[in-house]
Amino acid sequence: MRVFVLVPILAAAAFAQSLPPGFVGSEICQNCHAEVWENYHANPHYKLLASDSTPPEQAGCEGCHGPGGGHVRAGGGARTIPRAFSRLQPGQILDACLSCHARDFSRANIRRSSHTEADVVCTACHSIHSSPAPRHLLADAQEQLCYRCHGAVRAQFSMPFKHRVNEGFMTCSDCHNPHGADPPTWRMGNRPRMVAQHLGNEQPCLRCHADKRGPFTFEHPPLRVEGCEGCHSPHGSMNARLLRRPVVFTLCLECHTGNDSFGRQGDGVQRVSPSHNLFDPRYQQCTTCHVRIHGSNADPRFLR
Ligand code: HEC
Ligand code: HEC
Ligand code: HEC
Ligand code: HEC
Ligand code: HEC
Ligand code: HEC
Ligand code: HEC
Ligand code: HEC
Ligand code: HEC
Ligand code: HEC
Question: Is residue 255 within 6 Å of ligand 8 at its C-beta?
């Protein structure tokens, strides 16, 4: 096919007769879209074209834009190309990309993700022809891309203590799957927040914080029930241990009320021992004594 690289349009149009009706092949497009072609050899989609083994309706320019015969005959124009993405509805864009990529998202719930439901589809995050990112054809460096729409999250990652996403040590997608995620087995049916699940449906945190995985002889139940986010704000916090509350005892007392109607889940979690004088600052530092707060193999009260 590539022997026709520089043929004039008319000759190429004659060549087009040999293809399925409507499909004219990709070579002819470069006559008028040289700027798109210029970078195309570096595009992962070029593979399909280079392999020469895939029919044109599944490869090259027309794999995404649809049969270009009418467009070429008309001498161009956004109205004559079947899929001009600038004119498509979000659902049509999704279908066009998923016609090839559906298999990539077998672990993601892409059609029901919060993004898809909010009409944020593929081209909001990926730039096929002019991606400035080194990988995955992203429309911008990953965290900057996400911050375009998630300004509040940008502020969280600027707090005194945080995971170092802005510094380039990790990315949003270490914890999230922007394509969607099945509801997790932890979190008690709360909104999934597209938190990516690691092997065997476990929390993504355990990939890096493996010492918190257990199993422990004595587990602190919220680790598995609410998940890590029951106590931590993973984006950023005023607390050096990324706790959801600036001081630790206020966090513990949210659950340890011993009161059926006031407990966060209304289940009356064990009240702190009467031996604890909560006005004594020493007792406010719960984790100076309950040092194995994530679970212990030696003590049911996590004291060692
Ligand atoms: C993987 C799907 C895909 C393939 C393959 C593809 N395009 Fe595109 N094209 C798009 C999308 C999506 C847009 C909309 C702009 C964007 O989001 O990057 C677009 C936009 C365009 C535009 C509008 C100008 C612009 O840059 O936005 C032209 C012209 C174009 N494509 C031509 C081509 C040609 C020629 C080829 C083959 C060399 C090609 N496309 C291959 C998806 C594709
Ligand atoms: C004879 C010149 C010519 C040829 C050949 C040609 N195009 Fe175009 N194309 C144009 C012109 C002109 C436009 C309108 C540009 C504009 O509106 O800015 C256009 C627009 C487009 C757009 C719409 C961009 C948008 O979203 O507004 C796409 C996609 C596109 N062409 C793809 C192709 C593909 C794929 C091929 C090869 C099958 C091809 N073109 C061949 C001239 C051509
Ligand atoms: C909200 C932003 C967003 C949307 C919407 C989105 N993506 Fe992505 N996509 C990303 C990010 C970020 C990555 C890089 C993930 C990483 O680094 O692990 C990625 C990676 C990919 C990859 C390569 C790695 C993988 O996970 O397989 C493919 C293929 C892909 N996206 C295709 C698509 C398609 C097709 C759509 C639409 C059906 C889409 N994306 C919608 C942000 C998005
Ligand atoms: C005709 C089939 C086809 C269509 C349609 C298609 N793609 Fe692809 N896409 C591929 C193939 C094949 C690859 C290369 C996969 C590889 O490298 O193994 C690819 C690669 C990608 C990658 C890079 C993956 C990576 O690992 O870095 C992204 C992102 C992507 N496509 C997004 C899209 C988006 C967004 C659309 C819709 C605008 C789209 N694709 C439409 C076939 C397609
Ligand atoms: C260390 C893991 C981790 C990283 C890195 C991370 N997140 Fe999150 N994110 C979470 C968890 C866990 C939740 C659920 C929190 C909850 O429901 O209490 C969440 C919730 C969210 C939410 C919904 C709740 C809200 O605050 O609005 C958005 C949006 C979000 N993250 C965006 C991002 C973006 C954008 C990035 C990258 C700049 C990012 N996250 C990086 C773990 C992470
Ligand atoms: C084009 C705008 C846009 C971009 C870009 C974008 N998002 Fe979103 N995101 C949304 C909208 C809209 C929602 C749904 C409304 C809401 O919950 O805020 C959402 C929701 C979320 C949620 C919460 C899901 C839930 O169930 O509550 C997370 C997590 C998230 N986005 C992460 C990301 C990450 C990570 C990136 C970058 C890879 C990203 N987003 C890029 C617009 C965007
Ligand atoms: C990609 C690896 C990675 C993932 C995934 C990850 N973390 Fe981290 N985490 C780190 C690193 C590295 C640090 C050390 C702080 C830094 O960035 O300098 C850290 C620090 C922390 C700290 C503060 C520790 C201290 O030293 O005081 C807490 C708490 C924490 N992470 C909780 C979580 C939670 C909860 C999740 C899941 C929502 C999570 N992490 C996901 C890598 C990760
Ligand atoms: C019941 C509340 C609670 C839950 C749930 C919880 N943590 Fe913690 N975590 C804490 C407290 C309190 C500290 C501070 C301990 C201290 O002051 O020494 C802490 C500290 C940490 C630290 C830093 C110090 C250390 O021990 O390494 C990391 C990392 C961490 N947690 C990760 C996790 C991960 C990952 C999960 C989910 C598997 C999780 N946490 C679930 C309460 C919790
Ligand atoms: C999200 C709710 C939640 C938070 C926050 C929480 N816990 Fe717990 N904790 C529980 C539940 C549920 C149990 C199991 C209670 C039971 O079996 O009666 C438990 C058990 C315990 C036990 C063992 C009690 C016993 O009788 O064996 C101790 C000690 C404890 N928590 C200390 C703490 C401390 C210290 C903090 C703050 C760092 C804390 N907890 C934060 C829910 C929570
Ligand atoms: C000075 C050490 C110390 C501090 C500080 C401390 N505890 Fe304890 N805690 C203990 C010891 C020892 C026990 C077991 C003996 C007892 O019941 O007094 C215990 C028992 C518990 C129990 C189990 C009660 C029961 O009846 O089985 C809970 C719940 C608890 N602590 C929560 C907390 C919380 C929440 C804080 C912070 C507000 C805290 N502890 C601070 C030493 C401490």
Answer: no
